[in-house]
Amino acid sequence: MPVKDEKKLIEGCKAGEQEAWRELVETYRDMVFAVARRVAGPSAEDAAQETFFRVFKSLGNFRGESKFSTWVYRVAYNTSLDIVSKRGIVTENPDGFEQPYGGPGPDDLTISAEYSEAVKTALAGIRPEYRTVLELYYLLGKSYKETAEITNMPIGTVKTHLHRAKKDMLKTLRRSGVAGFH
Amino acid sequence: MNKCDEFMEILVLGEDATPEEKTAAEAHAAECAECAALVNAFAQAEGELATVSEAPNGFADRVMDQLPLPEPARRESWTPMWVISGAAYAFAAVFGGLVIWLAFSDPSVISGAVNDLTAFAASPGAIGYSAFGTITGVSAAVVAVAGYFAYNLVLSAE
User: Fold this and answer.
1) For chain A, which domains are there?
2) In CA terms, which of A82, A142, B64, B113 is 20 to 30 Å from B28?
3) pLDDT at B114
4) Predicted confidence band at B93 (pLDDT cuts at 50, 70, 90)?
């Protein structure tokens, strides 16, 4: 969600203004939650709340070297990783893919359900270290640069992770028999 | 690697493929049902990956509750301070002035009041008119000024 006057918003937050913080939280909550869900799975709510707390504590360190949104999502990513690491969460089945795909018409309902299941299986089958990058890449609108900034990886590594994630997916999709759905 | 594998590599993985390679792969997918199904599955996965669902209800409130923000500035009193202090002083001046005016306009009031106050001290049940006026006027002025200082004390304690 674009922010009307980001600089003013950040200044208001730094000054501890309630209204500015409310606007910041409401502007970034969905994306922060989405990042947290992708990385921390069932602990997404805790990770997202902790993210805003850390943003609150370290906002003074934001120097404007990257986009503010990228900085916030990097905090969300790192916070979620910390929570996963502390709690030993294994996000084999991330809960970010619960919504059914709304594309095909009524005649395709059966095949659509099978597709959805196969797609979920394929996503769950990607090695976690590659899957997070894949998820962030699409979440951020296919931006290599932003994905690299948030994960603190070189762009080349992001591309390699994406390539391997897609290879894993392709392998799982073939095994699941999706290629047989005509 | 068979033809289907090659084309899928280009369609799904090959961001760096040449335009000609991509065109050939797309033409293949248009005729090969298996490759088309895989491409569709990838498109569906990408759609799901890009989905940003809303944060749960009440999430923003829960976040705001945990942030150690300073309390919002106290709401301005509906009555400005100068009005309250002005009223207190005016009240004190009017009643104090009334008592003094009564005393000087009729000197007998002073002696009457002294007599009445003496009588009141001796017997609180019997109080004269002028002593009653004096006591009321002075009391009102004292109450007004004391009220003003008490109000200030309460404000500074909040």
Assistant:
1) 6-87 (1.10.1740.10), 98-177 (1.10.10.10)
2) A142
3) 72
4) confident
Residue from the list A18, A56, A103 with its beta carbon closest to the beta carbon of B72: A18
Counting the structural domains of chain B, the total is 2
B85 and B17 housed in the same domain = no
- B13, A166: Cβ pair inside 8 Å? yes
**CB-CB neighbors (< 8 A) of B59 in chain A:** 29, 33, 45, 48-49
Contact B55 A29 (CB under 8 A): yes
Is residue B57 included in any domain, yes or no?
no
- What confidence tens digit (pLDDT) does each residue in B43-84 have? 888 888 888 889 999 999 999 999 998 876 555 555 666 677
HEC sequence for chain A: CCCCCHHHHHHHHHCCCHHHHHHHHHHHHHHHHHHHHHHHHHHHHHHHHHHHHHHHHHHHHCCCCCCHHHHHHHHHHHHHHHHHHHHCCCCCCCHHHCCCCCCCCHHHHHHHHHHHHHHHHHHHCCCHHHHHHHHHHHHCCCCHHHHHHHHCCCHHHHHHHHHHHHHHHHHHHHHHCHHHCC
Test B60 with A122 for CB contact under 8 angstroms: no
Whether B30 and chain A come into contact, CB under 8 Å, resolves to no
Residues from chain A contacting residue B69 (CB–CB below 8 Å): 16, 18, 21
Of B41, B49, B69, the CB nearest to A173: B41
Q: Do residues B40 and B88 both lie within one domain? A: no
The predicted complex's ipTM stands at 0.77
> B7-27: per-residue pLDDT in tens?
888 888 776 788 898 899 889
